[in-house]
Amino acid sequence: MVVVLKNEATTQQINNLISWFEEQKVAVHISKGEYQTLLGLVGNTTNIDTDLIEGLEIVECVKRISDPFKNANRKFHPDDTVVDCSGVKIGGGEFAIIAGPCSVESEAQLLEIATKVNASGATLLRGGAFKPRTSPYDFQGLKAEGLELLLEAKEKTGMPIVTEIMNANHLPLFENVDVIQVGARNMQNFELLKELGKTDKPILLKRGLANTLKELLMSAEYIMAGGNEKIILCERGIRTFETYTRNTLDLSAVPMLKELTHLPIVIDPSHACGVAKLVKPMAMAAAAAGADGLMIEVHNDPPRALCDGPQSLTPEQFDDVAKRVFAIREAVKSLD
Ligand code: PEP
Ligand code: MN
Fold this sequence. Notes:
By secondary structure, this protein is an alpha/beta fold. The chain has 2 domains: 2-63, 2-Layer Sandwich (Alpha-Beta Plaits), CATH 3.30.70; 83-335, TIM Barrel (Alpha-Beta Barrel). Helices cover 34% and strands 18% of the residues. The strands form 3 sheets. It has an 8-stranded parallel barrel, surrounded by 5 helices. The chain has a 4-stranded antiparallel sheet with strand order 2-3-1-4.
């Protein structure tokens, strides 16, 4: 339920109303916009009499929200959320490119890629230390050592780091990680999501291979229900009958999610296509569609990459993509 307050409502009156709602055992989410203040009620609101609330002097109107996601809902929070990733902002007009290798492989590999992508305009460094692989015989990542190398690269380049967590027991190792990634395979690992809800780290939440946008938003809701509202959604392609590409990039997710939620949306064209040459056109299309950022895999030697070489760009290719993406952003802004 959303309660829209009148402009003249005083802080004292608003606080009295919030206390009353809390006595009814519903949590209140306050959204103070430029023009309006909204109270979003989360919990069992069936016993709350909307006519009674609407009759209050300070209330403009009351709307029931039928969507099962409440905290993530744009109706609760009309303004875009801007997620601050240790100084790099995403959302609300702030655009960021996250780039780096699929997996951290060595100090030399990571530092070379980090320095080059940073020089091309990437502002966040990605790299997997714990890798979710389809085969147990494939490279599983450097684990804790990979995290150490990411922290070293962060120190040397100044870029905040994004890396995937697979097990909540690993959280102590992620203390200095700037953005924790939840991979597609863990989008509905609800116990993991609940633990992340107790942290105050930005979470990059990837859409599952076969999940709907509503399910993605419900997963975000799990994290938000625990108190962590710093979520960046990521569309990384879904499974379809198409076989020329690894997945199918659902670019309509960008405008659809923009309508449904206030959370920022990032596109990962690398996992969506699985083919390096498709990354450039899809990254440009994502920028044109209004994505808040991109996540792109870059490797200094793609044929020898230990994971996802076929979809990885060389630093030179990434430089070209980044230039085009920034030019598209400028062109789109000039039309607004
Ligand atoms: C990744 O980002 O390296 C990754 C494993 O992505 P996804 O979870 O989207 O497959
Ligand atoms: Mn990958």
